[in-house]
Amino acid sequence: MDNFAYSIIAAVSKNGGIGYKGDLPWRLKKEMAYFNRITTQVNRENTQNAVIMGRNTWQSIPDKYRPLKGRINVVISKTLNSVPEGILLYPKLTEALKDLYSNDCVEKCWIIGGTGLYNEAINDKNCKYLYITKINQEFVCDTFFPDFDPNNFEEIFEPYIPKDIQEENGIQYEFKVFKRL
Ligand SMILES: NC(=O)c1ccc[n+]([C@@H]2O[C@H](COP(=O)([O-])OP(=O)(O)OC[C@H]3O[C@@H](n4cnc5c(N)ncnc54)[C@H](OP(=O)(O)O)[C@@H]3O)[C@@H](O)[C@H]2O)c1
């Protein structure tokens, strides 16, 4: 699996939270637009990216927004028996990644949550990049981004990622990208 580089994307509050009661703890339309842009954009023609998510994250997406359009939607679950047509279901992340990377039509794989998948990915050397939106505010949360060793990552700057502080509904946040060392 050495060539299977893939990435994490997450929005994380100051107290490390990512979710509350099966939903996002905040409403940030522009942050959501950023998530959609970053996970959808491809460099090669006739390819799409895959967005890989746990069962709860899949079930948290409102019907009108799922499947996430323009991307191959992949759900990791050992208990779900079926998913709608066109959605890929795997019991294990490693099995999903193996199939996705043997498919020429897939450009990038994005881990989009929640905690269990972030934790598995952040401890896997093939997960090379973390796209983290740092929300500079504390929120009541019941789901958290896993602890990880920041010494394993360095911040990088991509030309297509805004560097300035964003603000929506009085909430400030920044787009950060980290590369595994
Ligand atoms: N802020 C953000 O960027 C962000 C991103 C995504 C989600 N969220 C929020 O986070 C919450 C959902 O996340 P969650 O952590 O509760 O659940 P989740 O990871 O989406 O789903 C958990 C389920 O997914 C499967 N799963 C997860 N990790 C796995 C692994 N490594 N290997 C195999 N199967 C795995 C298991 O399903 P089975 O039990 O069926 O086997 C597990 O019970 C919601 O509140 C959502 O809004 C926030």
UniProtKB/TrEMBL annotation:
Identify the residues that the record assigns to the DHFR domain, covering every copy.
5-180
Question: Which Gene Ontology terms cover its molecular function?
Answer: dihydrofolate reductase activity; NADP binding
Pathway involvement of the protein, from the record: Cofactor biosynthesis; tetrahydrofolate biosynthesis; 5,6,7,8-tetrahydrofolate from 7,8-dihydrofolate: step 1/1
Q: Which reaction does it catalyse?
A: (6S)-5,6,7,8-tetrahydrofolate + NADP(+) = 7,8-dihydrofolate + NADPH + H(+)
The keyword NADP is assigned to this record: yes
EC category name: oxidoreductase
Any single Gene Ontology cellular-component annotation: mitochondrion
Q: Which Pfam families match?
A: DHFR_1 (PF00186)
Q: What's the EC number here?
A: 1.5.1.3
BP term (GO), one: folic acid metabolic process
**What's this protein's function?**
Key enzyme in folate metabolism. Catalyzes an essential reaction for de novo glycine and purine synthesis, and for DNA precursor synthesis.
Question: What's the family?
Answer: Belongs to the dihydrofolate reductase family.
Q: Which named protein is this?
A: dihydrofolate reductase
**From which source organism is this entry?**
Cinara cedri
Kindly list the organism's lineage: Eukaryota, Metazoa, Ecdysozoa, Arthropoda, Hexapoda
